[in-house]
Design brief:
The chain has six helices and no strands. Helix 5 runs antiparallel to helix 6. It is globular. It folds into two domains: 90 residues, no CATH class; 71 residues, no CATH class. By secondary structure, the protein is mostly helical.
Length: 162
């Protein structure tokens, strides 16, 4: 997908970016996947605790806002750690009684974020407010989707399978 604009614009003779620009984006995004793979390979030796997670969150914040390139190189390893360790530390079992919202969040988050961004484009909404509002709206839609679409559909399918 990153290379498609280059191919299309090159064919039309209007390329604004070189293929190297898009290739570097593919490599950068791929490095996060590689970081997750490496963490998976050493999963049995990972330090997973709240103090460790907070330490890595602080390192992530410093690396994210640092002007130095070496800091950016650490991000593909720190971000997957935060996701993996965070998923191990947060007590998700309490949410089981409410339903399974994972698919609803997956399908609704992008259109909701795009709608919020489009509606607030001129207002320069702070990133934190944008994130919070889009998270709440996505969770609400996922909740409604689970209880009024997904769960009834699964019950219907289970009824026909028995």
């Amino acid at each position: 997908m990153s290379l498609a604009p280059t191919v299309l614009s090159s064919a039309a003779g209007t390329s604004a970016y070189s293929p190297l620009f898009y290739s570097s984006k593919v490599v950068y995004v791929g490095s996060f996947f590689l970081g997750g793979v490496i963490l998976f390979l050493v999963a049995d030796r990972l330090w997973i605790s709240w103090p460790g997670w907070i330490l890595f969150l602080l390192i992530f914040a410093m690396a994210l806002f640092s002007p130095f390139l070496i800091s950016r190189i650490m991000l593909p390893f720190i971000a997957p750690y935060l996701a993996i360790a965070g998923s191990c530390l947060i007590p998700f079992s309490r949410f089981d009684d409410l339903g399974d919202f994972s698919y609803g969040i997956y399908i609704y988050h992008y259109p909701i974020q795009q709608a919020i961004f489009g509606a607030t484009l001129q207002d320069n909404v702070p990133l934190g407010a944008f994130f919070l509002f889009s998270w709440i709206a996505s969770l609400l839609m996922a909740y409604l989707s689970w209880h009024f679409v997904e769960k009834p559909a699964m019950n219907c399918c289970n009824h026909f399978n028995h």
